[in-house]
Amino acid sequence: MAEARFTTMTCSKCGGSLYYEEEKKNWRCKYCGTYVTVPVKDPEIEGIARQALIEVANGNLEKAHEWLSECEKKDHTKVATIISRMCIAMEELLRASNAAEREKCTSDLKTYMQQFWTKYKVLGPEETHLYESFGEDSADAFAVLVNLFNFMKLEDHVQFCLKKLNAYEVRSVEMNGRLLGVALSRKDGDLFKQVLSNTAHIDRKSALRVILEKLNADGENAAVLKTECINRVADSSAIENIGPHYFANYFEKSADPIEVKMELLKVIQETNLQLDTKRVFDALKGGVKDNDQLVAVLDALYKKAVIDSDTQGILTDALTTEGESEEQLFTILSFMAERKIFTQLGSKVILQFLSRKDISAEGKCKLLYYLNSYPIDNAVRNSVLKGYLCENAVDTPEDRRKILTFLLKFAPSVSTQAMHQYVENCTIDGKGKAAVIKMILEEGFKPSFARDLLGNYVKNCPDDAQTKGEVVRTLSEAGFQVDPAILDEYVTQSQPVSGEETPDSGQMQKKDFIEAAMQNGTNVNADTLDHYLASVQSTEDFDSEQVNALKASTYVIKATTFCNYLLNIHDPAKTQNCRDFVAAIEGDLRTLVINLTYNNENLAVNLLQAYLLMCNESYDTMSSVAQTLIGAGLNLRQDIKKGGTRIKFRRFIKDAGDQISPNCTRICRENRLFSLF
User: Domain check: are 43 and 29 in the same one?
Assistant: First the structure.
């Protein structure tokens, strides 16, 4: 401590200044070393002052005033009397209950302090003798003095009284609280620990709040001190009386290092106080330095039973908050799984996690692995699978397939509704859609679960042509049927299943689709082939393979449809198809009248005559078709109308001469058109 000097007396031998020597309890000359004894006029007043200070320490101000009166009777100018006045006035100020009282006490204290500063600002023999005379068992009196002089900023006085103070023996709970304030203001860790060690005479609740709110924990030594102080005073009574809200606020707002907070948390968890687990975890999580500390926080919190909503909240935040460390997330999940701490998680939370952009596909699969052990009911699992399958566009198609591989194990099955929604409406996976459908089928999804799936897809396909072809092939090969009406509508569409329809395209051609549908049990309507032929307007639109596929089922052809096919379509297989179609004709070909313009002349002829005049196919084809038509009852000799006038067909052929095709002329001759009999 700083050297306490006495300046109102000097050495009797050399006139030098004096200083107080603690070991000898006496004053000594700084220059010649002579001890100087200070005469005491009234030894009783010191004892009276001591008693007044002890009453102040114990809060008995009425008794303190009585002892002060005794001092004043002895000598109102003595240091003992003035110090007693100041201590009582300061205590009264601290206890003042209203502004008027505080104003009066402040005025009195200022007056007494001025008196003291005038005469005793520098520590002198009279004052030191006073303190020396207190003797043993005066800790409370010195506690009052330390508090007073620290307030007055009289450093020599504070240090002298601290030397005399045995903080372990202070009995006044109030004074111990004040001493904690002194220790904080002076950054005196030793004094702080001494006061806290006096556990029988401190208000543990107040002391703990002082430690948490005011004791600095900056730096390693300070943190160790704070931790030590917490352990000294934080018993179950203090903690439970403070309450959970206070501690939650501390964990949230205090700048103390995580080590100090963790020590407090461990102490709290040994009591009956129930913390807001979610709130405390949120407050501590941001301060942890590594996963070991995170586990330590969880371990401390889960030493007691935690309400399910808190666990649910911790997991929900960890799963759904963008930017949360992937490593931290899995530390939390693995901790919960290892301790078998389970809670219900809804599909919304899991889907939010799967929608995070900051978690890798591998991380998401790892999460699903952990969640697989949670008591998540099948409805939630199916909802997660459906939601991810049909709505998650965050992950790349490649990553989606990785995650779906796991989800297809995570959920019991893909619901029929989910399959319909994905196939018929979703384009998330682009060209990988067929691959995803195959994954679902391999997990056991049966065509019987969604009989109209393929038909609906063909009718309302949202995908590009290539993807459509791959999906149609996948579903067809898996055995999905098509509604006959949809198949009918499909075969009449001019566009192919998937873009450029060629055998080498790798896509499903229409004839393959039709054959697969029939093989899967689709019943083709009898008039589907007729509808297709009626829709074809030119040879470029005609697909002979599709016709052959449709001919594999029972069919009927309208006479008008056959007429369109015969006169407008060049078909390499026309010879055979004509025979087959004529056999399936619905109606009478002989009643058909074909109106056409031939060499600028308007003619009305039957179908056989029209075919020979209009078509320029090979002789063999034309001859065979003619015989088929003649076999169906058509008459080559039947009169025709030319410009509304009835004439013989042979006359028209002869008159036209070279304008008639050689094949037509030859077939007419072979069928005796020009013969009279």
Answer: no
Is residue 555, in this structure, part of any structural domain at all? yes
Q: How far apart are CA 303 and CA 295, in angstroms?
A: 12
Q: Is 443 left (phi over 0), alpha (psi -120 to 50) or beta?
A: alpha
Q: Write the burial class of residue 3 (CB in 10 Å: 0-12 exposed, 13-18 middle, 19+ buried).
A: exposed
3-state secondary structure of 416: helix
Asked whether residue 459 is domain-assigned, the answer is: no
**pLDDT per residue over 628-642, tens digit each?**
999 999 999 999 999
Distance in Å from the first CA to the final CA of the chain: 154
Residues 61 and 193 in one domain: yes
For residue 148, the enclosing domain spans 38-202
- Quick check: 2 pLDDT over 50? no
Helix (H) or strand (E) holding 29: strand 26-29
**DSSP result, 291-351:** HHHHHHHHHHHTTS---HHHHHHHHHHHHH-TT--HHHHHHHHHHHHHTT------HHHHH
Q: Is 38 in contact with 129 (CB distance < 8 Å)?
A: yes
CA-CA distance, 294 to 285, in Å (whole number)?
7
Q: What are the residues whose beta carbons fall under 8 Å from the beta carbon of 638, sequence distance 6 or more?
A: 605, 606, 609, 649
Same domain, 194 and 73: yes
Residue 265 lies in a domain: no
**pLDDT tens digits for range 346-404:** 899 999 999 999 999 998 998 888 888 777 888 999 999 999 999 999 999 999 999 99
Tens digits of per-residue pLDDT, 578-609?
Answer: 999 999 998 899 999 999 999 889 999 999 99
Q: What separation in angstroms does the CA of 405 have from each of 411, 442, 549? A: 11, 11, 37
Q: Same domain for 11 and 121?
A: no
Cα distance between residue 348 and residue 387, in whole Å = 9
pLDDT of residue 23: 65
Reported for 572-579, long-range contacts at CB under 8 A and 24+ positions apart, including other chains, are 572/544, 573/544, 573/548, 574/617, 574/621, 574/625, 575/620, 575/621, 575/624, 575/625, 575/628, 577/547, 578/624, 578/625, 578/628, 578/629, 579/628
Sign of CA dihedral 69, 70, 75, 78: negative
Q: What predicted TM-score, i.e. pTM, was given to this entire model?
A: 0.69
